[in-house]
Design a protein that fits this description.
alpha/beta, single chain, four-stranded mixed sheet
Length: 436
């Protein structure tokens, strides 16, 4: 039997849920209606219910809680932000840039704290993350990243070859960078446990209920209309399916593979003893972790953007990308392990790569995490809870609060531009590998 293709390893490891939540039974009135039962929507519901237990909150979800990126991602709960601290400082000033990055670093701990408080066993292990440098040009990028972090007082350490290999025994390592602000976890276990936690607080989750249109005061679904004082859009890579949002976020696919459990002698060589997450300083992102049951879960970009921002189940499976991921894994660790799972899914990319969270005229939103959403969604949920309840906090003054990215170009310009950028990025990496 070949590797599983139908779902992520994370979801498969949990098995089928005990029961599917019933859809919206018809029209209803609530205080807050949330569209999307992934991390963003569920964390928002969680912190709202904690802040004001009297609020009537309903979450509508087209499939089931955790169906999207929350149940398929790489399991990095990281302080990473798509816009680097230097670039963010040029846009919003030094103080705001540092506050944004430190808020995300602190969120890594908040996710672990909340999971423990709710009894969610998601294999949370805060081992940090290592980015390897495996060529001279990657060493220069590592040096620049560490220097910028030091300039802004962020916790990123430059590693020499020996220190990097001690953490992650990959081939050809010349150095790297290390940040403690990352935890590896089982993402599907987190989202499933979070859904149960919000239900314990009286939040209604209606699965199998597709939102068709959002407007001030109402969510029109295929099972009725939810009328609410505040409507929250929390759809990330599926945002383009909503009427009027085709150009809000571009759904770009990221794919993953997971090996069979590897024997102890292999792990002795690879390391990752504290379950550090790992990547390297190439352009086209790859990411991996050592799972709690000793697999390598490894993913990366490279799948094409599909014309018209289309999202289809068939796009989760790109044989060429899966082959490239396996080749990259072999190149990194000198092994060719059996692959047990292959899967993928869309993530949401704003035109300026700047995630955002906000509330205006009864309509709230959060997303555009560019693949770094496990921690960011928690921070977004806390921020939305503050905005909706009228609570002034440091979170509501972060630079992503109230930010609006301009719309993506219409087709075919969107398709041409995104895929040309993907192809160009891959070619730059190929050129650097050839020089190495």
């Amino acid at each position: 039997m070949g590797p599983a293709l139908s779902t992520s390893y994370w979801l498969a490891a949990l098995g089928e849920p005990e029961a599917v939540r019933p859809p919206l039974p018809g029209d209803r009135d609530v205080d807050v209606a949330i569209v999307g039962a992934g991390y963003t929507g569920l964390w928002t519901a969680y912190y709202l219910a904690r802040a004001d237990p009297t609020l009537r909150i309903a979450v509508v979800e087209a499939q089931y809680a955790g169906f999207g990126a929350s149940g398929r991602n790489g399991g990095w709960c990281s302080g990473l932000f798509p816009v680097g601290v230097g670039a963010l400082a040029r846009r919003h000033g030094r103080e705001q840039a540092v506050a944004m990055h430190r808020a995300l670093a602190g969120t890594v701990d908040e996710v672990g704290r909340a999971a423990a408080a709710e009894g969610i066993d998601c294999s949370y292990a805060k081992g940090g993350t290592i980015a390897l440098a495996r060529s001279a040009v990657q060493v220069r990028r590592a040096e620049a990243e560490a220097a910028e972090a030091q300039e802004y007082g962020l916790d990123v350490t430059l590693l020499d070859a020996a220190a990097a290999r001690e953490k992650c025994g990959a081939a050809g390592v010349l150095g790297g960078t290390f940040s403690p602000d990352c935890a590896s976890l089982q993402p599907a276990a987190l989202v499933r446990g979070l859904a149960a936690a919000v239900e314990r607080r009286g939040v209604a989750i209606h699965e199998g209920t597709r939102a068709l249109r959002l407007s001030r005061g109402a969510v029109v679904t295929d099972h009725g209309t939810v009328r609410a004082d505040v409507v929250v859009r929390a759809l990330e890579g599926y945002t383009a399916a909503l009427a009027g949002h085709r150009r809000t976020l571009a759904p770009v696919y990221s794919l993953m593979i997971a090996t069979e459990p590897l024997p102890p002698e292999v792990w002795e060589r690879i390391g990752l003893a504290r379950r550090e997450t790992f990547t390297d300083h190439r352009h086209l992102i790859v990411y991996g972790q050592r799972t709690a049951d000793d697999r390598l879960a490894f993913g990366g970009r490279g799948a094409p953007y599909h014309f018209g921002s289309r999202v289809r189940p068939a796009y989760d499976r790109e044989p060429g990308v899966f082959a490239a991921l396996r080749k990259a894994l072999t190149d990194l660790f000198g092994i060719d392990p059996p692959i047990a799972y292959r899967w993928g899914g869309p993530l949401g990319i704003p035109r300026d790569w700047m995630p955002s969270v906000g509330l205006a005229d009864g309509l709230a939103w959060a997303g555009g995490y560019v693949g770094d959403g496990v921690a960011a969604a928690n921070l977004a949920g806390r921020t939305l809870a503050d905005l909706i309840t009228g609570t002034d906090s440091e979170r509501t003054r972060l630079p992503w609060t109230g930010h609006r990215s301009r719309a993506w170009e219409p087709e075919p310009l969107r398709w041409l531009g995104i895929n040309a950028a993907l192809r160009g990025t891959a070619l730059r990496d190929a050129w650097e590998i050839a020089r190495r």
